[in-house]
């Protein structure tokens, strides 16, 4: 797969299908991007498991850290990697040992390792690199457009609300318009 560009349909399908996300390299520091991502995805209905051996057992934003992917207490649909590119092969090694295997390997902005991606794809995983699921979710749901950012998504349909709050929209497929 060409990892220089992803179709919106590919990203939307991934974010619509996954339910559990392990965030490798998550931080308990509220000023770190990984903290924002884990909190945001959790608030959008995903089951999020922060993975950081230095924080194992600590609960932050209602989420309990685990030391390794193998410590996640339920099957993982997606692994989101907040580690430097040279650490991605070791994460892929850990992912490939899981049973059942996650469906998706996602690496954050600035994180790209083509060799590790090829290994994950050969094992049947979908791969997204150098993207942020928080940004993609916000862009595809229309939330990001409320701040004046061009989401490259145009629709005449009213967005689906995701609970209370002004900027809580869903990327779920929209059914027929109800009256």
Automatic annotation (TrEMBL):
Top-level taxon in the UniProt lineage: Bacteria
SUPFAM superfamilies in UniProt: NAD(P)-binding Rossmann-fold domains (SSF51735)
A Pfam family reported for this protein in Swiss-Prot or TrEMBL: CoA_binding_2
InterPro entries xref list: CoA-bd, NAD(P)-bd_dom_sf
Residue ranges occupied by any CoA-binding domain in the UniProt entry: 15-111
Stored PANTHER family: COA-BINDING DOMAIN-CONTAINING PROTEIN, CYTOPLASMIC PROTEIN-RELATED
Protein name as annotated: CoA-binding protein
Source species: Xanthobacter oligotrophicus
């Amino acid at each position: 797969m060409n990892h220089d560009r992803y179709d919106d349909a590919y990203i939307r399908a991934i974010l619509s299908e996954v339910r559990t996300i392990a965030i490798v390299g998550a931080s308990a520091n509220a000023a770190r991007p990984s903290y924002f991502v884990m909190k945001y995805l959790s608030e959008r209905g995903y089951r999020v498991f922060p993975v950081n051996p230095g924080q194992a057992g600590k609960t932050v934003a209602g989420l309990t850290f685990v030391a390794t992917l193998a410590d996640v207490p339920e099957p993982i649909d997606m692994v989101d990697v907040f580690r430097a590119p040279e650490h991605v092969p070791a994460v892929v090694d850990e992912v490939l040992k899981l049973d059942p295997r996650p469906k998706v390997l996602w690496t954050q902005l600035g994180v790209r390792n083509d060799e590790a991606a090829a290994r994950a794809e050969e094992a049947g995983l979908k791969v997204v690199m150098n993207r942020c699921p928080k940004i993609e979710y916000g862009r595809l749901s229309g939330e990001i457009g409320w701040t004046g950012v061009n989401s490259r998504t145009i629709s005449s349909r009213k967005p689906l609300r995701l609970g209370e709050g002004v900027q809580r929209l869903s990327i779920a497929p929209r059914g027929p318009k109800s009256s």
